[in-house]
Amino acid sequence: MPPRFDFTIHATDGKARLGEIAMRRGTIRTPAFMPVGTAATVKAMKPQDVRASGADILLGNTYHLMLRPSAERVHRLGGLHKFMGWDRPILTDSGGYQVMSLSELTKRNEEGVSFKSHLDGTRHMISPERSMEIQRLLGSDIVMAFDELVPTTSTREVRGAAMERSMRWAKRSRDAFDAGGDHAEGAALFGIQQGALDQDLRKESADALLDIGFDGYAVGGLAVGEGQEAMFGVLDFAPGQLDATKPRYLMGVGKPDDIVGAVERGIDMFDCVLPTRSGRTGQAFTRTGPINIRNARFAEDTGPLDPACGCPVCANSSRAYLHHLVRAGEILGAMLMTEHNLYFYQALMADLRAAIGDGTLTRFATAFRADYLARPDS
Amino acid sequence: MPPRFDFTIHATDGKARLGEIAMRRGTIRTPAFMPVGTAATVKAMKPQDVRASGADILLGNTYHLMLRPSAERVHRLGGLHKFMGWDRPILTDSGGYQVMSLSELTKRNEEGVSFKSHLDGTRHMISPERSMEIQRLLGSDIVMAFDELVPTTSTREVRGAAMERSMRWAKRSRDAFDAGGDHAEGAALFGIQQGALDQDLRKESADALLDIGFDGYAVGGLAVGEGQEAMFGVLDFAPGQLDATKPRYLMGVGKPDDIVGAVERGIDMFDCVLPTRSGRTGQAFTRTGPINIRNARFAEDTGPLDPACGCPVCANSSRAYLHHLVRAGEILGAMLMTEHNLYFYQALMADLRAAIGDGTLTRFATAFRADYLARPDS
């Protein structure tokens, strides 16, 4: 019988860990980057090409999927894996973040959050119990507890109250998950630490989560505009407050240099729309920093997006061709830029894993930053 | 040394011909369907996937490419094949059709056509000589003569005058092509028959073209709104007016049943945006007629787009998933619908070729129409 959720740490380098999460649908190499498949598709990518880029796991969005095509429909069609043609692990978020950032007329109380769909104005509700039900219907492998987010600039009172409510919701998520029967046999549940930038709130949140017990722990409430310095400030202490034997997941992060710094601070898992979203608007990641392929200086540049990249796009397409495609608004431009960016992210994760294994992470990270941050975004 | 342009007819069945065109960049099986790669990309498709669908040759648009990124730039970047990553034959049109249908403030005289770009308002000119130059700069394998189009509903005088001018331009195209040096070593030149729906004008045009001499002959000026009956009426006589030893190309056609009827009437080559354009808007071709995947009845349909189809999309994706993707405006929806449609067209061409080889074309065509036209477009 395949393991439900076995996290093994193979090596450490400073606070960074090289590991693997073994699950029934496949093994996730950590530190891991999870491409975002918002609406049952990693935008502009076929599933086999996402896999070929090196991804072991995708993220699906509860909020988007519950609205369209609906969790119940996905369930009737055999679950999210079958629906979208991805047979490896899928992590689903709880809907908590998107319901606050995308929906309208949101009403929150202790029960949960009710809101109007940004698609068609219909009213919906998410509570911890409903979030667990949706993620169960989708067939998620890694289920996230439902939490409440507030801006890091909220008053201390608001920050504390949101963290405390999130911990009550974490317990309700745990209970609903455990009551879910068949789901609990194969899936894992992660708790989410809140507490904004406050070390004491973060500690209180971590202790509450550890008391409940989860398969993994996310550092939530970051990457919401606080800036890299403030985020790293939290990451200097937050991972250490969590269970060292479980994976630590930094939600919604981030830029390549964010990821390198977070891995150095002990984070094992990441997700972000940046490689896919920026690919669609013409931004390509390279080891010497991001470039905007729309820039006129690329119009007759016969070189690849990134001379240091081994992806199929860099092997076959010139900057001049991609410049043309993106400027002309061609779908193939979005496809190829996205594919390159996903390879870039996965190659970075592979290099980080290799450096941790070799005990050379500090050297790698220093050299990476020297190259990547050497010049402003062109 | 590979052949420049060798057309071999392997079998005939009624007026239909099974053949091959051998060129330096590859062999084109006929009857052939050429996907349209307007702006140096078959929209939403990677070149390798276009090839995997069974395409031996692509069409590129002179009008679009001369405006963006410009023929001169494509030439400096090594030609269209290298630029877009397609190493097999490419046919380029002359720009004559698009300049009339897409550009603004068009002025025609005996020299050529001057026009304002639909992209940025800049003024440009195409003459027979400039069209040959552009197609040479692009590195086209099959170059089309520059012609003048008028609606089939024009007066007899206008129809006749446009045909006669097109024949003078055909001669200038031939002379400019032959003067082109290196280009003439590897590329072929096709003449375009005009004459609207008039059998005598078509005969006069054919005789003028045969007098000049071309590697192949296109039936031009059709598929411009005259309807299938009128088009087939012309195809009942027009192919027979041309050189039986050369390929006959019906430009801009068409619907699957148009193609079947045209093959029965002796046409060897086709191009059309229909499979790609309609794929992007949610229409899928099936052997029992086109379907619109946005239709609510497909929302929970777990079957493939077309049970009779062997394409990768039908193997991996349900109608329900494609319904979701197209409704959500996802790029992957456009990608997969386009891929299926291109496979559908190439499978139809393969079946037509097999039927001609077996001497069973009438039976195949009758059965195809019975299935395909049995019900109105859903």
UniProtKB/TrEMBL annotation, chains A, B:
Question: Where is Zn(2+) annotated to bind?
Answer: 309, 311, 314, 340
Write out the entry's keywords from A to Z.
Glycosyltransferase, Metal-binding, Queuosine biosynthesis, Transferase, tRNA processing, Zinc
Q: Which residues does the annotated region (RNA binding) include? A: 252-258, 276-280
Question: Any idea where the tRNA-guanine(15) transglycosylase-like domain is?
Answer: 15-372
The record ties this protein, via Gene3D superfamilies, to:
Queuine tRNA-ribosyltransferase-like
Which Gene Ontology molecular-function terms are recorded?
A: glycosyltransferase activity
- Where does the record place the catalytic residues? 93, 271
Identify the cofactor(s).
Answer: Zn(2+)
* Reaction it catalyzes: 7-aminomethyl-7-carbaguanine + guanosine(34) in tRNA = 7-aminomethyl-7-carbaguanosine(34) in tRNA + guanine
Q: Which InterPro entries match?
A: ArchSynthase1/Queuine_TRR (IPR050076), TGT (IPR004803), TGT-like_sf (IPR036511), tRNA_ribo_trans-like (IPR002616)
Q: What is its EC number?
A: 2.4.2.29
Q: How is the cofactor bound?
A: Binds 1 zinc ion per subunit.
What PANTHER family does the record tag this protein with?
QUEUINE TRNA-RIBOSYLTRANSFERASE
Which protein family is it in? Belongs to the queuine tRNA-ribosyltransferase family.
Q: What does this protein do?
A: Catalyzes the base-exchange of a guanine (G) residue with the queuine precursor 7-aminomethyl-7-deazaguanine (PreQ1) at position 34 (anticodon wobble position) in tRNAs with GU(N) anticodons (tRNA-Asp, -Asn, -His and -Tyr). Catalysis occurs through a double-displacement mechanism. The nucleophile active site attacks the C1' of nucleotide 34 to detach the guanine base from the RNA, forming a covalent enzyme-RNA intermediate. The proton acceptor active site deprotonates the incoming PreQ1, allowing a nucleophilic attack on the C1' of the ribose to form the product.
**Subunit field text:** Homodimer. Within each dimer, one monomer is responsible for RNA recognition and catalysis, while the other monomer binds to the replacement base PreQ1.
What protein is this chain from?
A: Queuine tRNA-ribosyltransferase
* Species whose genome carries this gene: Sphingomonas rustica
